[in-house]
Amino acid sequence: MSAAQLLEVRNLSVGIGVACILKDISLEVRAGEILGLVGASGSGKSMTALSIMRLLPPTASCTGITRLNGETLSLKSEAEMRAIRGRDIGMVFQEPMSALNPLMRIGDQVAETVRAHRQASASEAQGLARESLDLVGLQGEQGALDRLPYELSGGQRQRVAIAMAMVLSPQFLIADEPTTALDVITQAQVLKLLQGLVRTRNMGMILVTHDLAVMAQLADRVAVMHQGEIVEQASAADILRRPRHAYSAALLAASELQPKRAATRQNGPAVLQVRGIVREYSRRRTSLWHPLKPLRAVDGVSLSVHAGETVGLVGESGSGKSSLLRVILALERAQAGDVCLLGETLSGASGAALSRLRRSIQVVFQDPYGSFDPRWTVEQLIGEPFFLLNSRPSKVERRRKVSVVLEQVGLSAADAKRLPQEFSGGERQRIAIARALITEPAVIAFDEAVSALDVLIRAQVLTLLSDLAERLKVAYLFVSHDLHVIRAIADRVYVMQQGRIVEEGAAAAVFESPRHSYTQALVAAYPKLPVHQEAPR
Amino acid sequence: MSVAARNLSLVAGALITAVFIVVAAIAQFWTPYDPRILSIADKLRPPNAQHWFGTDQLGRDVLSMIMQGAETSVGVALLSVIIGVCVGVPLGLLSAARRGATDEIVMRGNDVIFAFPALLLAILITAVFGPGAINAIIAIGIFNIPVFARVTRAGALQQWTKDFTLAARVAGKDRLRISFEHILPNLLGLLVLQGTIQFSLGVIAEAGLSYVGLSAQPPTPSWGRMLNEAQTLTALAPHLALFPGFAVLLFVLGLNLLGEGLRRRAGRSA
Questions:
Q1: With an 8 Å Cβ cutoff, is B218 touching chain A?
Q2: Which of A331, A366, A371 sits opposite B169 (nearest CB)?
Q3: What is the pLDDT of residues B145-182, one digit of tens each?
Q4: Is B169 on the interface with A (CB under 8 A)?
Q5: Is residue A536 part of a domain?
Q6: Do A366 and A469 reside in the same domain of the chain?
Q7: What pLDDT was estimated at residue A452?
Q8: Which domain holds residue A52?
Q9: Contact B172 A362 (CB under 8 A)
Q10: Measured CA angle at A410 (ends A405, A416), to 5 deg
Q11: pTM of the prediction?
């Protein structure tokens, strides 16, 4: 073992009740090294990070040895651990908003960490806070010590969280999904910052993430976790080129979504046509004399979806994608513009005409947990859109149709009697797809439909969607912030920024030679897996 | 707190409540003595073998009066909760479904009702229609309306943020239908809990109103009036005050334990 070994974990096992959460975890991190901890959700990544900090829930039982710089953390008392957390080990969490106290100025928050650990005068602590905020790139006006968290963007808040973790110059940093809640361009900046800190200060870092591409960019070595065990541990390059364990190989294969081949068939007629949509939200009046201008979420957007075609709509959060989708689905009214479905105007339709049109456009939402009424059975849920039909089919007929769509999405007819809680996230998205298929629509809209899923499940759902599009000749409008996903599924792409479409074109053209500067920045910032040279073509 | 302790408050509360409700039901058909029959010769007897809870200043059997008092108490509290649910829940659902001006009008209307104490309302109704159990039910029921409206609205607003309401709208359902098909069933736990709390407040309110003579009128027995009548005789016959007092105490305690148990159980399953 080299002398520079910083963190060492030996045979760590954690159980809660009878359930075994972590099994025999051993890993080590040298100074100046970044260890990536990858795996699906529930694989025990975060638990590993928490047990190193000894922050496990009190009901958990933990065995094994953790050493930091030769000192055995597992033998320390809680008081000693409190001193170590923050001073020797810093931690950055996923959610930058909940990690900060919303009522405290950022300078005070960073300074508080200092004063919790050592005797320091207020001005001394503020000075350290200033240095730390400078270090993470929050200089001048944007990082002024007296700003409050809500005044900062997500990326800036995450920088503050990093500044808090760095202010006492810890030797070790644990980052748990530090960029998952951030936009692509911000993510690239934060990752670069973390990498720079580790290299220049010769720290050790554990980076917990589900995203292999982020891992590939940052980590020196990677430990792949599956069901509480480390199934493979190797250098990042090795894992990416020659994964030895079957699970790592599957994970890698699922992460490398193959770009969709350009469609050779001719486009059919336009099934969905959106013209000049403007959607404004009025803002709360703050002054009696100067009413605020309404917030323009969607600013004159036009797009079209042709029969059987998959159209991707990419944009960061806040770009107006969801507002646009709600207008298209006639859930909200636009201030201007209109939506035509199969040649008829959907916006402004009501009563029977609206019901008839709604049959032709259905939707799948992002959250596999919130999109079902927990009290309804799968059969009732999938059958809900039957409400749109003039004459509702008989019970037998409904049951038959529900089992047909259930089988189309790869579930069994017997699942119809179960409740949504009995299914996993991926299965729930399949149920949501079944619900969208039941009225045999011409277009299905997907609102970040695979964003909440793990990579393996995501790949399966995307394959299912491609199959269904092929077999049923249904058109998709696929909304996502994830370029990989859009690239894997879309024939044509629209790129949206601040309520406007800034670029459109065939998927291959947009991603390979983006014309608009925003698209260029987006494509450049997106973490990529190195090209898999040895894979058979 | 352990699972057993949680269940304890639920089980104990449910048991006590059930006993009172059963007693009230039995009192409909049978009591040891007819509490309307006076027997001056037997007046102010302390508890004994014939009269377990003793007799009052007019020789009536206290146990029988307590039993019929339970009937009055349960009846008034239950009916006033039903009034509150039947009016308040739809108002809350409507408020959450429509938002905007409807919401504003409904909720401010609730504020106005909230501003009147139940007692004041009861006096008002009594002044107009005369005293009686029905008027107590109406007074307490009106007081329950804004409570249920607010609880329903708050719960419904939270349900409306879930995607399944959007899915139902895409399936062509209007907000009213979604309110009853999706929102209301998901609020049942919350409403049962609030119902228990309002029930116990109703028992107290009924006792208070009958104490000041605004609820059930003689000869219908009620706990509040029994306490009132016992007041001047406490030195002579303390059992006259103790039994109805304990009846109110125990019933309210049981209902509160039940509510607490339900609340814990809801918190655990959520």
A1: no
A2: A331
A3: 999 999 999 999 999 988 899 999 988 888 999 999 99
A4: yes
A5: no
A6: yes
A7: 82
A8: 1-88+173-179+202-256
A9: no
A10: 55
A11: 0.82
The reply to whether A3 and A105 lie within a common domain is: no
The percentage of chain A sitting over the pLDDT mark of 70, rounded to a whole number, equals 95
pLDDT tens-place string over residues B230-259 = 888 888 888 888 999 999 999 999 999 998
Q: How far is CA A191 from the centre of its chain?
A: 15
Q: Which of A371, A373, A402, A428 to mutate to test the interface with B (most CBs of B within 10 A)?
A: A373
- CA–CA min distance A346, chain B (Å): 13
Please indicate whether, in this complex, the C-beta atoms of B162 and A370 are within 8 angstroms of each other.
yes
Q: Which residue of A has its CA nearest to B162?
A: A370
Please indicate whether, in this complex, the C-beta atoms of B166 and A385 are within 8 angstroms of each other.
no
Cβ-Cβ contacts under 8 Å between A and B: the total is 52
When pLDDT is cut at 50, 70 and 90, the band that residue B3 belongs to is low
B49 vs B107, residue with greater confidence? B107
Report the residue of chain A nearest B183, measured CA to CA. Answer: A373
Determine, yes or no, domain membership for A393: no
**Residues of chain B with C-beta less than 8 angstroms from the C-beta of A387:** 171-173
* Listed residue (B194, B208, B188, B89) closest to B140, CA to CA: B208
CATH topology for B3-31+56-269? Answer: MetI-like fold (1.10.3720)
Question: Are residues A220 and A297 both part of a single domain?
Answer: no
Boundary-marking domain end, from A150, A169, A188? A169
* Number of independent structural domains in chain A: 3
Measure in Å the smallest separation between the Cα of A32 and chain B Cα atoms.
44
How far apart, in whole angstroms, are the C-alpha atoms of residue A238 and residue A245?
12
Alpha carbons A250 and A212: distance in angstroms, whole number: 12
Considering only CB atoms, B164 lies closest to which of A361, A371, A388, namely A371
Token digits of residue A511: 């991603």
Same-domain check for residues A107 and A33: no
Query: Measured between CB atoms, does B171 come within 8 Å of chain A?
Result: yes
Profile chain A (537 residues) by mean pLDDT over runs of 10 residues: 73 85 89 90 86 84 87 86 87 80 87 86 88 81 75 82 88 88 82 89 90 88 91 89 88 81 67 91 74 83 91 87 90 89 83 87 88 91 89 87 92 90 89 93 91 87 91 92 88 92 90 91 83 44
Q: Which of residues 129-168 of B touch A (CB under 8 A)?
A: 162-164, 166-168
Residue A534 lies in a domain: no
d(CA A329, nearest CA chain B) in Å: 7
Please tell me the predicted confidence (pLDDT) of residue A265.
Answer: 55
Indicate the domain borders of chain B: 3-31+56-269
Does A5 share its domain with A144? no
Neighbours of A269 (CB within 10 A): 10
Q: Could you tell me if B126 and B210 are in contact, meaning their C-beta atoms sit under 8 angstroms apart?
A: no
Chain A CA closest to residue B187: A375
Residues of chain A with C-beta less than 8 angstroms from the C-beta of B173: 384, 387
Tell me which residue in A354, A371, A375 faces B163 most closely, judged by beta carbons. Answer: A371
Does residue A396 sit within a domain? Answer: no
* A44 Cα to chain B: minimum distance (Å): 24
Buried b (16+ CB within 10 A) or exposed e, B18-37: eebbebbeebeeebebebee
Flag whether residue B100 sits within 8 Å of chain A, measured between CB atoms. Answer: no
CA nearest to B161 within chain A: A370
Which ipTM score applies to this complex? 0.77
Cβ count near A493 (within 10 Å):
25
Same-domain pairing of A245 and A318:
no
